[in-house]
């Protein structure tokens, strides 16, 4: 970005912004996972919404084999069994990891950002920078 040469001892990352309907992609992935036989021989997943993980259930070797959930709408407790659990809690994933293993160390640092608008003379029409 030649027009920003005056900023000495600074660095940034050039980025290109894209858009997608991530909520639709998420729902399509979830609904596809629930189909029996979508992958031949595989049973579809069960889906739940508005539920909070209360605790994991483990076998004698410490492997997670189930979980206790609370339905936040009905306040009923749900007991589920599964071979696979996927932690998709975003910036809250460390909390779930610690529920699975109390000795887990934090890995995720949440971040905040600000958007700054620059005159076109500094950046091209379709350019932006990320400054961590």
Description:
With 132 residues, this protein is an alpha+beta fold. The protein has one domain. The chain has helices spanning 22-33, 93-100; strands at residues 13-15, 51-58, 64-71, 77-81, 128-130. A hairpin with a 5-residue loop joins β3 and β4 (77-81). It is elongated, with a radius of gyration of 22 Å.
Report a brief summary of the structure.
The protein is α+β, with helices and mostly antiparallel strands and 132 residues long.
List the strand order in the largest sheet: 2-3-4
Order of helices and strands: EHEEEHE
> Approximately what portion of the residues adopt beta-strand conformation?
15-25%
Gap from first CA to last CA: 17 Å
Q: For the residues shown, what is the average pLDDT?
A: 85
SS field, number of helical segments: 2
Largest sheet: 3 strands, antiparallel
Structural class: alpha+beta
Unreliable stretches, pLDDT < 50, 5 or more residues?
Answer: none
The Cα radius of gyration reads: 22 Å
Count of spatially separate domains:
1
Helicity, in percent?
Answer: 10-25%
Multimerization state: single chain
Number of strands: 5
Q: What would you call the shape? A: elongated
Features:
5 strands, alpha+beta
Helices and strands in order, then pairings?
Blueprint: E1 13-15, H1 22-33, E2 51-58, E3 64-71, E4 77-81, H2 93-100, E5 128-130
Antiparallel strand pairs: 1-5, 2-3, 3-4
